Amino acid sequence: DTVILIEELHKHYHLGNQVVKALNGVSLTIKKGEYVAIMGPSGSGKSTLMNLIGALDTPSSGRYILNGNDVSHMSDDKLAEIRNREIGFVFQTFNLLQRYSALENVVLPLVYGGVPREERYRRGKEALVNVGLEDRMLHKPNELSGGQRQRVAVARALVNNPSLILADEPTGNLDTKTSIDIMRLFDQIHAAGNTIVLVTHEEDIAQYAERIVRLRDGRIESDVMNEARIQA
Ligand code: ADP
Ligand code: ADP
């Protein structure tokens, strides 16, 4: 029941003739059903780790096993397939297609996954009902509030029933009240048994997670259960 197994992950970038060591030996295990925040100051390696966990990039060295798949050295095509199957992404900027309705946006991962049309729409509607948007299914993103747009993105992340929900600063573009609504939604998703990794630099947001991993200078500085967890 291990979703993420990371061993001695290193990531180096080449900048001219300099080598930037963005991650310096990160090891991390996340089990099914966990809700983990990854925190750290600017430049600590959060985006780099998020890109590796999200199978958007591969490490310089070390091992990353995602739900039993070794994604450390995969080709870009194989990585794209793994991403679509295993990970539901939620971004700060929502990343919705403006020309499509909420429902059409939500079913897109199922189009890539080859799910038949009728089943796509059935599952898409179900996902939108689960995030409380049953009466906004045919609205386009520009007809929705920020919080509603992020709910659409969460429904899209869930529709494939992925092994991991990976959220990158999901409240970064939302006001405080709407942010709390979205964190409540993540609580609900977690309570339903989903595994969530939340990357954020906001202490208040990290407090919703049940475990907090802190990065500094490309290493894990601390990894603790969050005793003061906010339960929305
Ligand atoms: P964070 O998301 O916590 O701000 P990053 O993962 O973006 O941290 O960056 C970690 C380190 O790696 C920083 O020193 C940053 O400047 C460097 N870095 C990140 N991406 C690149 C890149 N594409 N090329 C060169 N250096 C990079
Ligand atoms: P391809 O380039 O092969 O079409 P994509 O890079 O579009 O593959 O991504 C495939 C999956 O990864 C999609 O489900 C998409 O939502 C997700 N994804 C992950 N990271 C990103 C990102 N930064 N931007 C857009 N989609 C992303």
Automatic annotation (TrEMBL):
This is Putative ABC transport system ATP-binding protein. The lineage of its organism: Bacteria, Pseudomonadati, Bacteroidota, Bacteroidia, Marinilabiliales. SMART domains: AAA. It comes from the Bacteria. It holds the Pfam family ABC_tran. CDD domains: ABC_MJ0796_LolCDE_FtsE. InterPro entries: AAA+_ATPase (IPR003593), ABC_transporter-like_ATP-bd (IPR003439), ABC_transporter-like_CS (IPR017871), ABC_transpr_LolD-like (IPR015854), MacB-like_ATP-bd (IPR017911), P-loop_NTPase (IPR027417). Residues 4-232 form the ABC transporter domain. It comes from Thermophagus xiamenensis. GO terms for cellular component: membrane protein complex; plasma membrane. GO terms for molecular function: ATP binding; ATP hydrolysis activity; transmembrane transporter activity. Keywords: ATP-binding, Nucleotide-binding, Transport. Belongs to the ABC transporter superfamily. Macrolide exporter (TC 3.A.1.122) family.
